[in-house]
Design brief:
The complex is a heterodimer of chains A (234) and B (603). Chain A is of the alpha/beta class and 234 residues long. Chain A has helices at residues 47-54, 77-86, 103-111, 120-126, 142-155, 172-189; strands at 3-16, 19-32, 36-40, 62-67, 70-71, 88-91, 160-164, 192-197, 208-213, 216-221. In chain A, helix 3 (103-111) packs parallel to helix 5 (142-155) and helix 5 runs parallel beside helix 6. Chain B is 59% helix and 13% strand. Chain B has 17 helices and 12 strands. The chains are: A alpha/beta (234), B alpha+beta (603).
Amino acid sequence: MENLIQASAVSKYFQSSGITTKTLDDASFSIKEGSFTVILGPSGAGKTTLLNLLGGMDNLTTGSLVVDHKDLSHANSKELTMYRRTDVGFVFQFYNLMPNLTAKENVELAVEVSSKAFDPEKVLNDVGLSKRMNNFPAQLSGGEQQRVSIARAIAKNPKLLLCDEPTGALDYETGKTILKLLDDYCHNYKKTVIVVTHNAAIKDMADEVIHLRNGQVSRIEIPLFKKSAEEISW
Amino acid sequence: MKTYLLSILKTFKKNFLRFLSLVLIILVGICFVTGVGGITPKVENSFEDYYSQYNVADLIIKSKATTGFSDDDLDKVKADSQVKDAISLTSIDTTISDEESRIYVYDFDSSINKLELLEGSLPDEADEIAVEESSATIKKRALGDTVSYMGMDFEVTGIVKNPLMYSKDGDASITNIDESLSLVMYLNADKNVLPLPKTDIFVDLKNPDSYKYFTQDYLDYVDKEKDSLKKLSGFSSEDVSYLGLSENKSYEILKNLGEKVNVIAAIFPAFFIVVVALVVLTTMTRMIDEERSLIGCYSSLGYSKAKIRFKYLTFGLISSLIGIASGITTGIYLLPNLIYPAFGNVLILPTITKTVSYLTGLISSIGMLAATLIVTLLVTNKSLKETPASLLLPLAPKPGKKILLERIPFIWKHLKFKYKSAIRNIFRYQGRLWMVIISVLGSLALVMAGLGIYDVSGAVLDIDGIKVNLTSTLQPIALIVIFFAMALSVLVLFNLTNMNIGERQKEIATLKVLGYKTLEVDSYVFREIFAMSLMGIILGIPTGLGLLYFIFKYLDFGSIADIKWSSYLLAFVISLSFIGIVDLLLSRKIHKIDMNDSLKSVE
């Protein structure tokens, strides 16, 4: 498989009252198209910064980051917006659903600005929410809300699905079903999925694991025995 | 303690935009109320000073008999206990070479009803005269001009002004009431050789309670004195008439104009203050809601409720005090001084008085301050009733729910998704919706009313047969009302939009993450505010008309039918463009919202 992402010496500095903090320091790695990658590391390792860069939500300071032949290191904010619109789907720890929109409408919100999108009802069916489509977020459980959030990300039919601690706010069982959903998407649609987490158990289901520590890539690991979402436990 | 004070200071820094818009809204409201309320007092006080300076005659007793008054008659008047002093003099209205003229034989040294010398010198010889300053009706004459009367030629040596004649329209001739006087001349009583009777007695009353000339108390006092003089002097009412200031044309015009302005000064501020108070209420409620986790934090750290309350009361107090102080100072000086010259189109104005009137401003300021503090106290108390634990949890967003329109699938199904979302959002927070509608409606109604007054201010007002053109006086006031109403609506819209954006940071960030373009995000946010404001605008025009109906009724002139159609259009267009301006100003705030900060937390 071809590389979807190529990161070379990616750094991100933050300046605050004269002090420069390197949240990401010379990170280099590549991610294959259609793979399930876990970015693992403790708090403060630079995971979120990396995710923001991969998602086109922030600019890097130095280095080069190419996603699907697009060089994000030189993209302006308009180009980044178009990148987010068509190429990436986001899943957050806290769902970030629009409270005044039903499950279906939340998905429609994403579909509306995407040209190659899936049918919202079909996607909601796929994530097992066929009966909850007309419910508002407040009427759904945490797991259900995260499914809506995944449906919203998938419905745009993006090449890349970025998930920031997707199970962080969920109980064990629910968390596992969510991971299964992400894994299925990766395999059934041949899409690239990246999960950012500090939960080491999740790495067992990855094709590749990028270990981050103090803003640097400390190790890249390819698990010998890839497990399914049902098989992992924490 | 130091940390605590620092946290108060931080509240201001963090809520700077909120603080600024509170200050500005209160400033505009109080400035307007103080200023408009101060116009009539300013004009009246200026004339008050003028009357006092020239000691205007409180009462004129006019003889209808050709013989006039004798010295005995004058003594009888002087004997009255309320009479401070009295003089008898000649005042005859006649026609001199086709001009309606009045001839005074005047005692220039007397302290009663002194004349102001504007040019030249007072007549010192039998064939010299002074003439009244020219006006719309009184012909202009130069020093050295001559006037012939009773076979004598008189040379004009001075131009003077009589404190009883400052209406630009001029007084009517007593002998020929349909004509205005064109010449008023003054002969020196000491040098006069013409055999003229003493027709008038000018009376200076003691006025022991120092009633001001433009008060009802003064008029009542003079009326009482008329009666007592009638009894005492024994003049038959067929022979003499008693004329107080209320029978003086200039006085009457001024008093009437003042009352009209006062009607505007009473109705508008009431409306203004309601709108301002509503905005303050919304702003403070929103602020406390935003700071609830902070309040919870202080609470759990063991800060007393009083200390937490004090923090927010300080914010409310300082914002309103700054707004009030600057509003009163600008209002007292700015508006009355700006409007004063407008009265000059109808009246010959004396020097503007330095006396300031801040009664209306003071009353509304105290009301405003009390309202702000009570509102702050109530919303803070509501939060403090919760336990610190529950305060630390974010306020659950109000769950979305189906609205009535969704039950009509025939309409709902055909709506585009983005409109569905906007409509549902609008009705989700009913309280907010009404707040926006009422605030926009209120400020637009004020704009509408200002335009309406402007339209009818060309009307001719009939005060007991005296026709006064109101244009010159009311038009600048109408313009000021329009200006302030516009300022208020911009501030109201700015504040409400600012709050709306603040409330929806997370939604906006979500849209950005989903790849919505700048314009798409803007329209998603502004669509709702626009729709709500539009409802306010649509309701605001009839409300403005209702307000105008009231104003016209109390002003005793003008009608809704006089309002030009262009004013309706203008009110509408003005409001729409204000929404546009505010949106433009605040789109920067939307663009600045950071996706990461807003999405990574529960809050």
